[in-house]
Design brief:
This protein has about 80 residues and is of the alpha+beta class. Helices cover about 35% and strands about 15% of the residues. A hairpin with a 2-residue loop joins strand 1 and strand 2. The chain is globular. About 20% of the residues are buried.
Amino acid sequence: MGCRKRAAKHQLLRVTAVEGVCVPDPRGALPGRGAHVHPDPACLDLAVRRRAFPRAFRLQGTLDTDRLREYLEERAGDTPAS
């Protein structure tokens, strides 16, 4: 979504909008329309800059992505250095 690169579904993170907030949905269990983004803060930055989330969810205005950003940064910190 953000970087527009294709990837297999299992490599992407599903995101849903709940009351104006972009929420990570790693299990794909939350109801509603979903969007997929690479689990990378840089891809999230591109999606936000391009205003991709409101278009994907067919909503007007901006969406809060702070919770999603925290989730991605937390996951990026969990990966061991090689």
